[in-house]
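Protein: Aminopeptidase
Species: Anopheles minimus
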Amino acid sequence: MKKLCDLTCGVLLLAALVAVVQARGIVSGRAFDSFRLPNTTVPTHYTLRLDTDVHRGVFEYTGNVQIRINVVEATDQIVLHSLRNEISNLQLRNSAGLKVAVKNHELDEEREFLVVNVATTLQPNSGTYTLEIDFTNTIDRNDQAGFYKSSYEDDEGVTRYLGLTQFESVDARTSFPCYDEPGIKTTFDIFIVCGIEYHARSNAPLRGIQLLEGGKKLSTFATTPRMQTYLVAWLVSDFVYEREVLTQPQLAIATWAKPSSAHLLSYSVDASKRFMRAMEEYFGQLYSMSKIDNVAIKDSDYSAGAMENWGLVTYRESAIFYEPEQGEQRQIGVVTIVGHEFTHQFFGNLLAPKWWSYLWLNEGFARLYQYYLGDISHPELNLRQRFITGPLQTALRADDSLSVRPMTYYIDTRQGISRLFDSIAYDKSACVLRMMNYALGERTFQKGLRYYIQQNKDRGVVEESNLFDSLEQAAKEDAVLPISFSMHDIFGSWSNQPGVPLVKIRRDGDEYFFTQERYVASDPPAEPFTNSWWIPISFSTPSNTEFEKQPAFWMPPNVTEVAYEIETAEGEVVSFNPQSTGYYRIEYDEAMLRELIEMMNKDHTTFEAPARARLLDDTLNIAHARGGNYEVVLELLNYLQKETEYVPWMVAYDNLRKMQTLLRSNEKASRLLQTFVEKLASPMLERYGVDHRVEDSASVQELRTIAIELACGASQSCNTAAQSTVNAVARGVQRHYSTTDGALLCSGVQQVSVDQRKAFVEQISHALGDKNLNDIFTKQNLEQSLSCAGRDMTKVESYAKYLFALGDTDRSKALHRLLVESKVPLADVVESLQSELSLRHSNSVYRTNAPKVLLEVARYVTEHSEMQLLNTATATYAPWIAPEIEQQLKANRRWLDQNVEPLVDALTRFLNA
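Structure follows.
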């Protein structure tokens, strides 16, 4: 009995000691005061071996990683990252292959460090060491990160499993021990064992296959380029592919997907081919490997959307699949997502950020060139104009709060790094890069980017000063900047300050006076802003378009006022920032604004479409921020009855939806606004009708959809078509649905009887549960239409499960439909979110996406009870975003306090006039 007690007590004591070590962190060696690796050692090469059984539905895997290491600074510790890996063996060898004694290894769970305590001091320049680690892990995880499982059902209804990776930003460490920081680049040799009927794919080309016992095989891959761990990727699946091999130089481009989707891959392969060659030519740089694979993953198993892994790019199925019946809108989606991830092959992969602070050097370029190179590779899609309605609008919205961060921003925790993947990194950065493209001239900017690539690709790690150096070199050579100007000063004023500038302009004869300040949508702080920028000022008149894209002059920072003379012919008006090339808002003095509005109503074609869009957006947002002058605003909006172009209408639509969102709880204001909106959009509805045609351009399809969403209620023919569409779905699901169908469904559901709505919801529920419905787009359209059913949708799925399953864009549309169009109580949505999150583990994909969803919901909160409910949910499930939530809620209340009364008065007078 005593021996048993001794054994038991010993085990308990050992467990307690381990718990103490894990709880306290490192108890020996140096103390860690940062979440950054100490980098006393650096890796020079990885050899990674994985043995998987995913083909049998077994989710555990074993691994062996050998990391060649150089010692940079004398140390008795090797510190790298590891999380979730169960380490079974660890040993260290010197360059002669002899073992180096290791005292022990420990885990610092807070920092996710694996600390190897060596029995001797390792000296710099003492040769290469090899750290070898055997480990086990599992792909059975629910956070859709690291190496994890997905599945699909084959034609016989059998579930087939696959394993894939999603490592950005800090999840390579959750799949194998590694130095998991973006500025650490080295090469990888990868070996993967899988079932004989499965394929293994990785970053580099497949070098060979060896058959093994037990129905398995070993796939060996070529050595990768030097790269960071977050780009390491592999796929273990039975997917099929479509491939095209290009020559001069040789490049194999393929798209992989489950077998039943093989017919949906051709367009993505062709788009990839066209974009890749356009990109190589534009930047004067060849892609680094001889193959690049696209991989399509089931939407519900892939929250990332897409990921630029070098040579093995992953996407949601709905992002990359295409069939001809879908037309140009879907083509735009495929080209832009492929373009974004392929641009990363240079910006992010070839040139890696030194730290996450410079994430915008990845994402800004990818966001810009998915449109600008996409416009070169696919000129028929007119992608450049879509930048104005997409990233520019998104950035201006995100950058107008007091709590927004600058582009370059340091943080080192897992949670903090995750939050850097925001609209500032993607959209604002793209807007600033685009502004510099026009300010320097595209030829000079392109030249500077070629210098940037060539001067930094060998080292492969960059920070913002490297970009500034290269752009300055090109600008000086081409003499497009005054000799005293510095790109470090100019660009740095944008990358290192938060916010967007407001340029105020007044006129005295032919002389124009400019001042600048930071624009915020809410009350400015008690202490005045000190922000100031180098701003390229562009303008145009009907007789002078010389400076409509390039700057007439640079407005320097920290100057009280700048004067500039512009001669105009009689009857001409000047439009500033007319092509929306500058990242700033314009506030005209009262007389200038009235002249512009008068001209817009007289002949809006006097101005280019981007100038009309800019005037609309700036005027509305300034009115919202100030809380007045709505007679002038409505007079400007009134011209939209004659507007037929995509860019101004999309910008107007964005603003009108914001107004609908904030007025949703005010019945009188909502009704007046809806009447006004219907007046504006009815001519466009009459022009485009309600019949979808595949041959229509994407712009026409989207304008028709906007017209239906805004004005269907005022058109008998549209109402009839909408009700017919709902009833048709209630009778049976068809294979293809367009955005027109989606808009008609939402309009129709608001009108039909309770029984018709019930039949509609039941049919969607039945269709979504039908295992024979394999069409991803039919499912997607049906899921999106659920939000049109309001409270009835909960008979199919809870609000929370529904919202968490959607991508960011679809989620935004769904919330508007639920809360504004269907008038679902916001409390019901928040309570559903709380209920669902309470059931989920902290590392689930639901918990990961909770901040995004809560921030999106915050845009709709206007009542005190709603604010309390949302604050409670935030405090429980995402406390780190509480300041942003609070800022949004204060902005909402301020908007209502300032705008409802003057807006209602102006609408009443306008509609009664």
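Remarks: The chain has a mean pLDDT of 93.
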